[in-house]
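Private note to self, pasted from the team thread so I don't lose it. Backbone tokens:
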């Protein structure tokens, strides 16, 4: 039997489908896109407030690796009716006015943006159960002021311990200090501290940050009755609360303003903040250092030429704040976390 001869007609060439369409750098204009604000983020899905509608959206491919966080102003296309089982696309993130960030610790190079375009940071601290941690408060203040945000210190469980020491330490810095005793089963309207805190929220966006178990979720549920945030208890052995809020979310307060409830944190790293900015979070100390300390002073100690101890004199709260600055600088250098 004669062997068959093959030619090019026997070869079957499959079209290269992947590269068949010419690539272009021209991106769609999305002229029909509408404005929205990200109010929640959950595993690649974004909840966006568009006028009176709450829309579920995904991030468009053209955004690339640009991350989205709560508070981001965005452009959205697709079905923005907010009807069940509908999905829109976020096609653009507008420029941020500011952003609040933290790192896992002071040696972590990864900056984690918590929220964008916020006006105020509410540092929620319990006066007892768990005990207050001034070092955490100081770190949050530095992060807030570095982001260009105002700060308010909310002291919860005021019926369990005195707030006198914390007031003396932070009110001279211009930080608003509010005491509240709102409980899960209590009437918030009867608590003057809660009423004052609610007034501080009017017309602005406020981010709530604090340890687990300090009462953030209780405050949120009192401010926004239909929020339904889970509340937990503090472990009697460790003195720490269990994480009850697992994701951040923004709520509109019926009396005016917006709040962002964040999961409880165990540390607040400041690797993203220039150490030279630490002292700027304490205006009175910054003025004293500028006037009294020698050029290039690292503010580590009086033995190394720092004049802040002499400035503090016999005033206890001044010494406390100078010590706090030095702890921040030392912990940043050592990579500690609080």
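Design output:
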């Amino acid at each position: 039997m004669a062997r068959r001869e093959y030619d090019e007609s026997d070869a079957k060439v499959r079209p290269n489908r992947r590269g068949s369409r010419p690539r272009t750098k021209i991106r769609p204009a999305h002229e029909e896109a509408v404005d929205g604000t990200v109010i929640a983020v959950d595993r690649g899905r974004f909840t966006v407030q568009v006028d009176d509608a709450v829309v579920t959206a995904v991030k468009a491919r053209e955004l690339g690796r640009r991350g989205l966080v709560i508070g981001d102003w965005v452009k959205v296309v697709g079905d923005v009716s907010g009807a069940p089982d509908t999905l829109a696309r976020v096609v653009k993130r507008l420029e941020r006015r500011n952003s609040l960030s933290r790192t896992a610790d002071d040696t972590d190079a990864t900056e984690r943006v918590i929220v964008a375009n916020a006006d105020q940071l509410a540092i929620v601290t319990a006066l007892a159960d768990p005990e207050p941690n001034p070092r955490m408060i100081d770190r949050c203040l530095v992060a807030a002021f570095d982001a260009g945000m105002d700060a308010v210190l909310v002291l919860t469980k005021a019926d369990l311990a005195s707030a006198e020491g914390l007031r003396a330490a932070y009110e001279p810095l211009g930080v608003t200090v509010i005491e509240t005793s709102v409980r899960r089963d209590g009437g918030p309207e009867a608590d003057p501290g809660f009423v004052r805190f609610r007034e501080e929220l009017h017309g602005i966006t406020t981010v709530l940050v604090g340890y687990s178990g300090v009462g953030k979720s209780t405050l949120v549920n009192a401010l926004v009755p239909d929020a339904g945030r889970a509340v937990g208890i503090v472990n009697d052995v460790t003195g720490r609360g269990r994480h009850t809020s697992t994701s951040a979310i923004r709520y509109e307060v019926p009396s005016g303003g917006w709040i962002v409830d964040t999961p409880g944190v165990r540390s607040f790293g400041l690797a993203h903040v220039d150490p030279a900015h630490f002292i700027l979070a304490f205006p009175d100390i910054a003025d004293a250092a500028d006037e009294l300390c020698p050029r290039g002073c690292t503010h580590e100690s009086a033995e190394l030429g720092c004049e802040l101890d002499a400035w503090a004199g016999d005033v206890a709260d001044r010494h406390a704040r100078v010590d706090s600055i030095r702890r921040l600088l030392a912990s940043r250098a050592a990579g500690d976390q609080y």
